[in-house]
Design brief:
Blueprint lengths: L7 E6 L11 H8 L5 E7 L5 H13 L4 E6 L2 H14 L7 E5 L1 H5 L6 H20 L7 E4 L3 E5 L3 H11 L4 E5 L22 H12 L5 E4 L2 E9 L2 E8 L8 H8 L5 E3 L8 E3 L1 E2 L11 E2 L7 H8 L10 E7 L1 E4 L3 E3 L14 E3 H10 L5 E2 L2 E2 L2 E8 L18 H14 L4 E6 L9 H9 L3 E4 L7 E5 L2 E8 L5 E7 L1 E6 L1 E3 L3 H7 L26 E3 L9 H19 L3 E4 L4 E3 L9 H5 L5 E6 L3 E6 L9 H5 L5 E3 L4 H12 L5
Parallel strand pairs: 1-2, 1-3, 3-4, 6-7, 6-16, 7-8, 16-29, 18-27, 21-22, 21-27, 22-23
Antiparallel strand pairs: 5-30, 9-10, 10-15, 11-12, 13-14, 17-28, 19-20, 24-25, 25-26, 31-34, 32-33
Helix pairs in contact: 1-5, 2-3, 5-17, 6-7, 6-14, 11-12
């Protein structure tokens, strides 16, 4: 379309003063009225209001507009709003541009109205240059599989799988360990209803296994992964259990086995046999043989007979799914030897305290000794100072203060005295009630400076905790206690092989990172892959379940359709110009570019638009400019730069 045929409408928003308090909106409108192709130029109080949207629609029809620019807030808020508006007016929605003059101009330049106004004019001129060179685009339509893969069988994975199953979608749940549940079954009681963690998992599993559209693979790992949103191909390797019968049939024989190793389910507080079943109610009911720690295979064969099958081999299952939910969970922080006395008799972590209480049916004893005084030391493994020598956890784990307060309240009901040695207490939201409850019951709170951490020494059959208390003007206290509990935080689970296969990003804290914490909280940079639960950030059970349901909802929006629509802002190769330097293939982080044999031309680069995320890395490295990004071509970029650089006379 030639410049003479262009009919552009421009709307500059006051944003209720957010823009007009710092930018002279009237001057912006006057400055761009003379721009080539501009037919309508207006200022509006709230461009996003229904009345303003209707005004835009009427102007398009009355003035025969074929391009629209709105200069207002961030496109993250209302770009889709105005695309839909111009679509309702009968225009292609991609013949619209959203100029951000709030975040980029008015909020950034509150100290100079004239300078902000000049910058706003440049922004709007660049937007006009963009639409002058814009071409109609169409969404990319892609068929999708009506199935979802859930990676991780903790409560996040279980919740997501259950929600998805209720929509009628096929669900494949893959858990790396031999049993479902993740870390939750290790919890004695959880706030607010006091249920055992194992019971929460049992309820989810019992509901899930009733579903005909759910396949569960335990002791399994993802071995290969390829494809794109709507069409992922996955290979799952299922490791052998070597045991063929339920636990109840052989539990007495298991007790006769000679080998014993530390029980990871109880964090090393007890020992287990090489054939193990972690806790009553675990799913599946069939135990697993740990061959890595087995020294006497013949004894096992003799004891168990046909119940054991050492000839079992790994199995491979191939799956096709439209979306993936990653719910791989977390690991509790493991203190270093000597950190806050860790390694001494009577110093345990918060997860170990849960196991002690569960093993004692709520009664707290250590090595048969009654416990009367317990000290909780907070922020162990969280809020650590930066170090060039080692990996540290600068973040707050959020859930730990709440968890420690709740279990200390349970201890106080048994007459146990509790001390709380803290840098800060962060019982956010409704959890503040638990802090109040512990305070009312007589919990003793002692605040320390992070540069002067408490010291723990052995004194007879007790532990002596030495600390400088900031709440008593720096008084040095020595507190004899029976047990010290290190309130440890969550750390991201290391899954390097899975990370490499899925290509999803981790943040500075090493947890998986979402696209946007508010607008796209469970989406990753890879289309069709979502994250749920504590693999994304430290969180409690309620937050984990909410996150899982959100991820399930987003995955369902992809997989319940027969066809999904993707944004058209994808790279495209002109095979007539491509010299097959392969630089684009090397730099693409999404493996979206391949070599294709074009009829009559030969082998050239080709972009799989379903995989392409529109990052533009390939455009930058192409030596012949054979690759362009639809919706942001080199021609458009050059025109925008030239327009923004023109002299502004106010």
């Amino acid at each position: 379309m030639s410049e003479e045929e262009l009919r552009i409408g421009v709307y500059v928003c006051h944003c209720g003063g957010n823009i007009s308090d710092y930018v002279d909106v009237k001057k912006v409108v006057e400055a761009i009225k003379g721009e080539p192709g501009v037919v309508v130029a207006k200022d509006v109080m709230f461009a996003c209001s229904d009345s303003s949207q209707n005004e835009i629609i009427n102007d398009v029809k009355e003035h025969n507009l074929n391009r629209v620019v709105v200069a207002s807030c961030s496109p993250k808020l209302h770009e889709l709003t105005f695309r839909e508006t111009v679509k309702r007016a009968g225009l292609n929605p991609y013949l619209y541009y959203h100029a951000n003059i709030r975040e980029h101009v008015s909020w950034a330049h509150t100290d100079t109205r004239e300078g902000a106004t000049e910058k706003a004019i440049r922004h709007v001129r660049a937007a006009i240059a963009y639409v002058r060179n814009a071409k109609p685009l169409e969404p990319i339509r892609q068929k999708t599989m009506h199935a979802v893969l859930v990676i991780g069988g903790g409560i996040a994975g279980l919740r997501a799988a259950l929600d998805l199953s209720r929509t009628g979608l096929n669900v494949y749940l893959v858990e790396r360990s031999p049993f479902l549940g993740g870390r939750t079954p290790q919890l004695y009681r959880v706030y607010p209803d006091g249920r055992r963690g194992a019971d929460i998992v049992k309820d989810l599993v019992s509901e899930l296994i009733k579903r005909d559209n759910v396949a569960i693979y335990t002791n399994a790992e993802i071995k290969s992964f390829s494809g794109y949103i709507g069409n992922f191909e996955v290979e799952v390797e299922i490791k052998p259990r070597y045991i063929k019968v339920p636990y109840d049939e052989i539990k007495e024989k298991i007790k006769e086995l000679p080998d014993e190793i530390p029980d990871e389910f109880n964090y090393g507080l007890t020992k287990r046999k090489v054939i193990y079943y972690p806790y009553e109610g675990a799913f599946p009911r069939i135990p697993v043989l740990d061959l890595d720690h087995c020294s006497d295979v013949e004894t096992i064969k003799e004891l168990l007979g046909d119940a054991v099958d050492l000839e079992q081999k790994p199995e491979t299952v191939k799956l096709k799914v439209g979306a993936v939910i990653v719910a791989t969970g977390f690991d509790p922080y493991e203190p270093k030897e000597g950190e806050f006395g860790y390694g001494r008799q009577g110093v345990v972590t918060l997860p170990q305290l849960h196991r002690l209480m569960d093993l004692g049916n709520g009664e707290l004893k250590l090595n048969g000794r009654e416990i009367r005084d317990v000290a909780f030391v907070y922020c162990v493994g969280s809020r650590q100072k930066k170090s060039s020598e080692e990996e540290v956890n600068e973040y707050c784990s959020r859930y730990c203060c709440n968890a420690a307060m709740y279990i200390s309240s349970l201890l106080m009901e048994q007459g146990i005295r509790t001390y709380h040695i803290f840098r800060d207490i962060r019982t956010y939201g409704r959890h503040e009630r638990m802090y109040d409850e512990v305070s009312r019951k007589g919990g003793i709170f002692i605040k320390y400076n992070e540069d002067e951490p408490p010291e723990i020494e052995e004194e007879g059959d007790k532990l002596l905790l030495k600390v400088k208390d900031l709440l008593t003007a720096g008084e040095h206290l020595e507190i004899p206690v029976d047990l010290v509990v290190l309130v440890t935080g969550m750390v991201p689970r290391k899954t390097p092989e899975l990370d490499e296969l899925l290509r999803i990003s981790r943040g500075r804290d090493r947890f998986y990172v979402e696209v946007h914490p508010k607008l796209r909280p469970v989406e990753t940079s890879i289309g069709g892959i979502f994250i749920a639960g504590a693999c994304q950030a430290p969180r409690d059970i309620c937050e984990t379940l909410s996150s899982a349901s959100a991820a399930a909802s987003k995955a369902a929006t992809v997989t319940l359709r027969d066809v999904i629509e993707l944004e058209p802002f994808k790279a495209e190769v002109d095979p007539n110009i491509c010299d097959l330097s392969k630089k684009c293939i090397e730099i693409c982080p999404y493996e979206a570019i391949e070599i294709k044999n074009y009829e009559g031309i030969g082998e050239k680069a080709w972009v799989n638009k379903a995989k392409c995320m529109g990052c533009g890395a390939c455009v930058a490295v192409c030596p012949t400019e054979a690759i362009q990004l639809n919706g942001l071509t080199n021609e458009q970029i050059r025109a925008m730069i030239e327009a923004a650089g023109k002299e502004v006379i106010i």
